[in-house]
Amino acid sequence: MQKPRITAAAALASLAVLAACGTETGTGTGAGSRTVTSDAPVTNIRWSFDSLTVDGKKTPAPAGAFVEFAENGRVSGNSGCNHFGGAVAVNEDALTVSLGETTEMACDAKRDRFESLLHKTFDGRLKAVVADGTLTLTRPDGDTLVLGSEPPAPLKGTKWTVDTLVSGETASSLPAGAEGRAYFVLGADGRITGKLGCNGFSTTAAVSGTTITFGRVITTKMVCAAPQMTVEKALLKLFESPATYELRFRQLALTAPDGSGVAASATRVAKD
Fold first, then answer.
1. Residue 10 has what DSSP assignment?
2. Is the pLDDT of residue 195 over 70?
3. Predicted confidence (pLDDT) per residue in 12-35, tens digit
4. Quick check: 42 and 22 in contact, CB under 8 A?
5. From CA 265, how far away is CA 130, in angstroms rounded?
6. Where in the chain are all domains bearing CATH 2.40.128.270?
7. Which of 90, 216, 225, 226 is surrounded by the most beta carbons within 10 Å?
8. What is the percent of the chain where pLDDT is above 90?
9. Of the candidates 150, 145, 142, 127, which has an alpha carbon nearest to the alpha carbon of residue 44?
10. Which CATH architecture has domain 159-268?
11. 8-150: CATH class
């Protein structure tokens, strides 16, 4: 059955959810093991998928795959390519997950395979154990998902790598050949440096509330292939006017007044 669609822009807006599960001494293995319960919330944590094991075969998760649980019974995350959402119920030492929405961006073969396995595994009643910052979810048939906790990334000092182009309520993955090439870092001094997809650039950024106002953009003058230039043009257009920013754990959305924008993931997190 085809899943209902949500846009990546709408999915980004839901990424503020916090874990609705909690911890108490339980029957897990290893030092610091906990079972998940609802009476001691785990907040300010995003769970990053590390791997899943289906029918005895372990598959590593792609970069950027994560999930968050909300106390209002919502679950949201990303498979490494597409955003997903649904409902979650916390019951003693288990989570009961029911996914209902997903974006429909194209993925490469490796990410598509992981996504298919994830939607098969991350469903129904899952036995949940937390041990030393690792969450292990086990299905009744023995298939497992392993996740690690992530601290949130600060706006400044983090390397933000662009992975999604947004136009109003429509989102798309980057053109083939442009992945991982566009990134930027906002320094403590208010300067932004990075790459637009092809050319290096620098500008200034004044942050006020949820708005970033950019200064004059200085770039190198190389001409690259069309995929990189597509992303570059989108970023240059974004920098022309003040942009609204939304920071959700390790994901950043920048939106221009006309609804166009980008989403970026933290690929190097600033340390205190």
1. H
2. yes
3. 443 332 222 222 222 333 333 344
4. yes
5. 25
6. 8-150, 159-268
7. 90
8. 55
9. 150
10. Beta Barrel (2.40)
11. mainly beta
**CB contact at 8 A, 85 and 33:** no
Reported as a single tens digit per residue, the pLDDT across 143-185 is 999 999 887 889 999 999 999 999 888 888 888 889 899 999 9
Which residue, 49, 184, 69, 165, is CA-closest to 118?
Answer: 49
Owner of token pair 């920098």: 239
Report residue 169 as tokens: 């309520």
Q: Helix count (H) and strand count (E) of the chain? A: 3, 21
The residue with tokens 């590593």 is 60
Rounded Cα distance, 152 and 250, in Å: 6
Report d(CA 235, CA 192) in Å as an integer: 13
| Rounded CA separation 125/106 (Å) | 29
Cα angle: 65, vertex 68, 69; to 5 degrees: 150
Residue whose entry in the numeric block shows the structure tokens 């939607």: 119
